[in-house]
Structure formats: C-alpha cells, structure tokens
Amino acid sequence: MSLPAPDPSSDPDGLDVDRQLPYQVAVFARRISVAGELDRAAFLLLEQLAATGPANVKTLAAELGVDSSTVTRQAAPLLRERLVARQPYPADRRAVRLALTPLGAGRLAQVRCRRRELIAELTAGWTAGERAVFCVLLARFNDGLLDRR
Predict the structure, then answer these.
(1) What's the chain look like in SS3?
(2) Is the pLDDT of residue 30 over 60?
(3) Which domains does the chain carry?
C-alpha cells in the first residue's frame, strides 16, 4: 500500500512541519522506550536475536547498522541480567555467539505486550484507516532511515 506524500504547504493547522516533525519523532522515540521499561538499544538487540537466532557480534552489528563495539557495549547489561547468553560457535569453539535466553524471551514478550497495549490505548479513538495510514507512513519513514546506512 503506497500513499502519496502529504503536501506540507496545505497544513490546515498552520504548524511548522519542518520544525515539528523532527521534534515529534524524538519525543516518540524517548516516550516509547520509557513506556516499555527496556531501553531502545536493548529492545532492538533482543528483537534481532528473537528473529534470527544466535549470532556473533559482527553479524548483529551489521543487521542493526551499528559498530561491533556498540553491540558489545549494549549486550553487556543484557548478559548481566541473563537476558542474553554466550554460546560457543559450533564451527569454531573459540568463537561465541549471543543467544536469547528463556528469561530474555519472556522479558521481550512482556515489553512487546506493553507496547501493543500502549499503542492500542493511544490510538483507541482512531479509525482502522487512520491506524493503517500511520503504520504505512511510519514504516516508510523507517525504511528511509534504513536506506541511509
């Protein structure tokens, strides 16, 4: 489903969209992270491990679009909390992969549920069409960021 880009010159509320949009995106990112009780980096790392299974730091860094040192730093608290564990790599016993633990999978499920509930609450007054348009536009926005890597 592809939607035409909104025409900023026809903004009925007279908002300065070029100024407001970056601000609103930043506010959204901060508030959704706080609401889930798991910081953004941890959530994304756990999501990646849940989606793809155990992986080494270099692979995770490539998939998340960050440096290996960033993944190592982000994984440290997850390892301490036993949400992630180190596993030996079958082909090379000296190498390790990070894997989601059952505790990590449970925590991720809780955060996903809280976020779904929050989004449902925040969009309760929206029509199904409005939710769909928001989802499409947000996905398009995120895809644009992915293309910039």
Answers:
(1) CCCCCCCHHHCCCCCCHHHHHHHHHHHHHHHHHHHHCCCHHHHHHHHHHHHHCCECHHHHHHHHCCCHHHHHHHHHHHHHCCCEEEEEECCEEEEEEEEECHHHHHHHHHHHHHHHHHHHHHCCCCCHHHHHHHHHHHHHHHHHHHHCC
(2) yes
(3) 17-147 (1.10.10.10)
